[in-house]
From TrEMBL:
This is Conjugal transfer protein TrbC. The chain crosses the membrane at residues 34-57, 69-90. The keyword Transmembrane applies. It comes from the Bacteria.
Length: 92
């Protein structure tokens, strides 16, 4: 098993430095814009879920909206994780 891991590690090319490749600034700027837009959409979704929970609480349906709230928070976690991973890989 360790021989396989060593072979895979040897097959991965070394980029030859710790900086991002030339011309990647534009891509990183686009990714930052996409991150902020996506997080803004998630924030709007959280507000909509909160409003639906408040309206539903008056009718006795408050618990049905917890699934929607969980989906929105899951989306925030995926967006934050993806952007962290991309920025780590781009600067490493």
């Amino acid at each position: 098993m360790t021989d396989l891991l060593v072979a895979v590690a040897m097959a991965v090319p070394d980029p030859g430095g710790a900086e991002a490749p030339p011309g990647s600034e534009g891509l990183l700027a686009i990714l930052r814009w996409v991150q902020w837009v996506a997080l803004g959409v998630c924030l709007a979704g959280l507000m909509a879920a909160g409003a639906a929970m408040a309206i539903g609480a008056r009718r006795g349906e408050g618990g049905e909206h917890m699934g929607r709230l969980g989906m929105v928070l899951g989306g925030v976690v995926v967006i934050a994780g993806a952007t962290s991973l991309v920025s780590f890989l781009a600067t490493a």
